[in-house]
Specification:
alpha+beta; Cathepsin B, Chain A; 2 domains; twelve-stranded mixed beta sheet; 18 helices; 16 strands
Length: 484
């Protein structure tokens, strides 16, 4: 059917999709004049008819197994019914090569996995170098400044788009994404680089850092109102200086909300530690920056982000416009590369005893009970007698798959020169396999999206890709809207 011929009065069709961890919502706007698009789809050839329904019923009832499946599925968890029990016997929890680390972390009811993942990468280094039994950075400290910087980023976005209408794509995106507790690697780099780090006991978690929903909701409401106020000020003739003065007052109010809900972070502190052998260190004064320099000291510009996105060309540098955590931070850049090449760099890093920032589509084929990520965990095709298979590129292009969670990649199991599985240090407390998830090599290929690796583990030819002029992608690209 030629839609242009059937409905000559059709004017426009706009689709907007917003991805979240839990769901995808589709908003469709159709602009029509005198005619109606729906007339084109009312013909019997394109509608569900009584005869079609009768065929569906006969086909379903013809298969006697469907009655048993209906009884089972209508009264039980589909996930459990699709579990491949034979695959459970293949579980092996040993790894040939593992980064030294200790203890587990718990992000609680928050979207801070990106921050836990980044800090867990550096935590492993501190534990090894200082011979500690356990250690953790304060996530609350960096989260405080992350929220303040994101508030400033949003308000600056309002000022930079002050002359654009409310239905402008960038203005819409800014209001829809005013602030949240999610993020990605550039936030780790920029927030730590600017504010430093402190130990967990110096600035511990609060009720609201572990349960961010209400705090985030109130700050988001405040910022959206502030954004409208700035736009109204500009429309009434206020100049940029007046807008920025008012913006600073707005930021002061956000700081107040954060200080009340999270606590006020320290500018200096005293701290000492005891190592595994019982040796007590000297009690010293630190600033968050001096603490970072002494205990981590890594050059954060040495880390390279990789993406495995087969829906776009490999060997190309990409940049996500305005996808960052702070106005004076860097946009998110990554090299799109084949999964097998990324795995080689990842193995080099683990052999070098360095954990990595890893993000993936964690909800796919996850067995929470035993902590495994395996493409053979659940067989939905067999349960329903329907083919659900899609390629990774197809899942990306149709919004079926994207990065939803970040973890630290800490181990690989190599048998006879073949990579069998990997280990991820999670931030969900003592769940899965001792606070970790075990990932098969095949699952790595199918559902890994981002991996951050120190450039010393990457070959020179791949590093040359960083010299390319990056392909700029919009911040509302569905591949990046979940930002983990």
């Amino acid at each position: 059917m030629n839609l242009a011929q059937t409905v000559p009065t059709f004017v426009g069709f706009n689709v907007y999709l917003k991805s979240t961890f839990c769901m995808k919502r589709i908003f469709i706007s159709v602009f029509l004049s005198a005619g109606t698009l729906f007339t084109a789809f009312s013909q019997e050839s394109s509608s569900i008819t009584d005869s079609m329904l009768e065929q569906f019923r006969l086909s379903f009832e013809k298969d006697q197994n469907n009655e048993a499946l209906q009884n089972a599925a209508s009264s039980n968890d589909i996930h459990k019914l699709a579990l491949d029990r034979e695959n459970l016997a293949n579980l092996d929890t040993y790894f040939s090569n593992r980064v030294e680390s200790a203890g587990i972390t718990d992000q609680k009811s928050t979207g801070r996995c990106w921050l836990f993942t980044g800090l867990n990468v550096f935590r492993a280094k501190v534990i090894e170098e200082k011979n500690l039994g356990n250690f953790s950075f304060s996530h609350n400290f960096n989260f405080f400044y992350d929220q303040l910087e994101k508030a400033n980023l949003f308000l600056e976005g309002m000022i930079s788009t002050i002359d654009k209408p409310l239905d402008d794509k960038r203005v819409e995106w800014l209001f829809q994404n005013a602030i949240g507790d999610g993020g990605q690697w550039t936030g780790v780099v920029d927030i730590i680089g600017k504010y430093g780090l402190v130990p967990a006991e110096v600035f511990p978690e609060s009720q609201n850092s572990e349960n961010t929903a209400w705090m985030s909701r109130l700050i988001r409401r405040k910022l959206r109102g502030d954004g409208m106020e700035l736009r109204n000020m500009a429309s009434s003739g206020k100049n940029e200086k007046a807008l920025r003065e008012r913006k600073n007052e707005m930021l002061s109010e956000v700081y107040k909300i954060l200080a009340i809900t999270l606590g006020e972070p320290p500018s200096q502190f005293q701290w000492r530690y005891k190592d595994k052998d019982g040796n007590l260190s000297e009690l010293k004064f630190y600033t968050p920056k001096s603490f970072y320099d002494e205990f981590v000291g890594a050059d954060l510009s040495d880390y390279v982000m990789f993406m495995n996105d087969p829906s776009r060309p490999f060997g190309q540098l990409y940049e996500i416009d305005y996808d960052r955590h702070m106005i004076d931070g860097g946009n998110w850049k990554y090299i799109n590369l084949e999964a097998e090449k990324i795995k080689e760099f990842a193995k080099n890093s683990i052999l070098g005893n360095e954990a990595m920032y890893f993000s993936c589509d964690v909800g796919k084929q996850l067995n929470k009970d035993n902590g495994t990520l395996d493409v053979n965990n659940y067989n939905y095709n067999a349960l329903f007698g329907v083919n659900f298979d899609m390629t990774k590129a197809e899942r990306i292009e149709t919004y079926e798959s994207g990065s939803t969670h970040g973890m630290a990649l800490v181990a690989v199991d190599i048998e006879g020169g073949k990579t069998v599985k990997w280990l991820l240090e999670n931030s969900w407390g003592n769940t899965g396999f001792e606070g970790h998830l075990i990932m098969t090599d095949e699952w790595f290929s199918e559902y890994m999206f981002r991996l951050v690796i120190n450039k010393k583990y990457i070959d020179p030819e791949t590093l040359k890709i960083l010299e390319q002029t990056p392909v700029m992608l919009p911040p509302w690209d569905p591949m990046f809207s979940q930002d983990q």
